[in-house]
């Protein structure tokens, strides 16, 4: 059942010209709520469903088959997730993505389910997230220190996700400096991938002309230049990465030098790869706790804001990194909001970069488990956990908070 917005909150449309409220929350079963949302209305859908571990959190984390019990748990979990993933796909924009957190309990089933519902051609990555750097020390066996984030595009051809970041660019990777102080590194201009060779890319196998004393490179001969052909380390013919016209357009980005190779000294051509402002680096598929935070730092963030009221929050750093791969006006949806980490991350990112992201969080009025942190804090339902944090986020970080479903697009504007 979807709960109507309380009278004290603003569930209406936003007046023309007014900035949209950053954080919105709806209490209810996410499948019911998802079914009320318009097609293609969200750019980023983040799902952090119960992992089906059987562990005791504030919420139920044990999806069972009514007949077979724990034995049929994978089938029951998949049956719970399938319609939610279908609805998530329907509400995702053509440019958008879904990101799903999961651990070893259901990752295999989830991957197959996502391949089926979202399309295996739309898989962008299965990221490993190192949320427990010390490793889980309880029980026997390996000390598990990671979980996963599965990332699928709504349509890989139109998706706008940029899998790079300025945050991991290390100036130490750019050890050289030009006389006028510009830092850079040298990359071989030769294509080092053997798939590209004079047979597969004949137009890129041509002679360049370079002077290893001055460093000058040109596609046409000049005084003092020697002819340089691209070769692999074993001397077999290779190809350049740049066409001859590009070489002529960007001579300052190239350098000719003598190098010691396997077969003695030779003259080769390099690209100067600059450390310029705004430089980005491709995100690796392993996300370390020192980069995105851990479950411990997530608890510390929650404690600092509203107290330790939830056992398994995600660190905002994980969500901030994921959200930063999408445009700064992204419309974000989190149907398994829990303690509201996604809404918190959205507000923090907007405050940091001036973005206009919005976030709709959903969690249900499931009574909290007796003995849980939330129960100890006097909260009745998991929805109360989400509310408490998102209200605190609005107060501390800004962006505002409203409760209730967004007004339909063609609804009259509330002035
Ligand atoms: C793993 S927790 C999410 C934690 C969250 N990402 C955070 O950082 O705090 C899963 C959440 O999904 C909620 N949930 C489970 N089934 C749901 C459903 N059918 N509808 C709405 N919420 C649901 C649970 O109440 C729980 O809060």
The string of secondary-structure elements, in order, is EHEHEHEEEEEEEEHEEEEHHHEHEHHE
Low-confidence stretches: 1-13
Question: What is the mean predicted local confidence, pLDDT?
Answer: 92
- Cα separation of the termini: 29 Å
Give a brief rundown of this model:
By secondary structure, this protein is an alpha/beta fold. Helix content is 24%, strand content 22%.
Main attributes of the structure:
single chain; 415 residues; alpha/beta; Rossmann fold; nine-stranded mixed β-sheet; four-stranded antiparallel β-sheet; 10 helices; 22% strand; binds S-adenosylmethionine
Q: Could you walk me through the main structural features you see in this protein, from its secondary elements to its overall organization?
A:
The chain has helices at residues 30-36, 73-90, 107-119, 244-249, 289-292, 295-306, 316-323, 341-353, 373-376, 382-396; strands at 23-27, 42-47, 92-102, 123-129, 147-153, 164-165, 176-177, 183-188, 208-210, 217-218, 226-228, 254-261, 264-274, 281-282, 286-287, 331-334, 358-363, 401-403. By secondary structure, the chain is α/β, with parallel strands linked by helices. It has 2 domains: 23-167 and 280-403, 3-Layer(aba) Sandwich (Rossmann fold); 171-274, no CATH class. Strands 15-4-5-3-2-16-17-1-18 form a 9-stranded mixed sheet. A hairpin with a 5-residue loop joins strand 7 (176-177) and strand 8 (183-188). Helix 1 (30-36) packs parallel to helix 2 (73-90), helix 2 (73-90) packs parallel to helix 3 and helix 8 (341-353) runs parallel beside helix 10 (382-396). It starts with 22 loop residues before the first strand and ends in a 12-residue tail after the last strand.
């Amino acid at each position: 059942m979807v709960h109507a917005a309380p009278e004290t909150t603003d569930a209406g449309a936003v007046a023309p010209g007014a900035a949209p409220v950053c954080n919105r929350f709806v209490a209810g079963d996410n499948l019911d709520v998802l079914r009320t949302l318009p097609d293609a209305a969200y750019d980023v859908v983040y799902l952090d469903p119960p992992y089906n571990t059987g562990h005791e959190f504030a919420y139920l984390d044990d999806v069972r088959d009514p007949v077979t019990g724990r034995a049929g748990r994978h089938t029951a979990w998949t049956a719970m997730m399938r319609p939610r993933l279908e609805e998530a796909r329907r509400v995702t924009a053509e440019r958008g993505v879904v990101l799903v957190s999961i651990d070893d309990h259901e990752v295999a089933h989830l991957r197959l389910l996502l391949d089926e519902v979202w399309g295996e051609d739309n898989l962008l990555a299965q990221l490993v997230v190192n949320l427990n750097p010390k490793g889980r020390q309880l029980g026997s066996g390996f000390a598990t220190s990671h979980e996963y984030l599965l990332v699928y595009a709504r349509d890989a051809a139109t998706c706008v996700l940029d899998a790079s970041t300025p945050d991991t660019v290390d100036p130490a990777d750019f050890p050289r400096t030009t006389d006028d102080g510009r830092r850079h590194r040298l990359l071989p201009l030769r294509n080092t991938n053997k798939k590209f060779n004079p047979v597969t890319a004949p137009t890129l196998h041509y002679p360049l002309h370079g002077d290893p004393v001055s460093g000058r490179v040109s596609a046409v001969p000049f005084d003092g230049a020697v002819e340089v052909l691209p070769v692999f380390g074993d001397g077999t013919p290779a190809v350049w990465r740049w066409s001859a016209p590009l070489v002529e357009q960007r001579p300052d980005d190239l350098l000719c030098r003598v190098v010691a190779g396997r077969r003695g000294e030779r003259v080769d051509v390099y690209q100067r790869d600059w450390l310029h402002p705004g430089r980005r680096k491709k995100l690796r598929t392993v996300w370390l706790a020192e980069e995105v935070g851990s479950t411990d730092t997530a608890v510390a963030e929650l404690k600092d804001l509203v107290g330790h009221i939830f056992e398994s929050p995600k660190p905002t750093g994980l969500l901030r990194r994921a959200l930063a791969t999408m445009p700064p006006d992204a419309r974000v949806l989190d149907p398994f909001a829990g303690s509201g980490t996604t809404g918190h991350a959205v507000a923090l990112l907007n405050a940091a970069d001036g973005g206009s992201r919005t976030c709709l969080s959903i969690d249900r009025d499931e009574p909290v488990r007796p003995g849980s942190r939330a129960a100890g804090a006097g909260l009745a339902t998991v929805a109360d956990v989400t509310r408490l944090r998102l209200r605190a986020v609005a107060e501390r970080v800004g962006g505002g908070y409203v409760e209730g479903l967004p007004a339909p697009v063609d609804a009259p504007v509330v002035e």
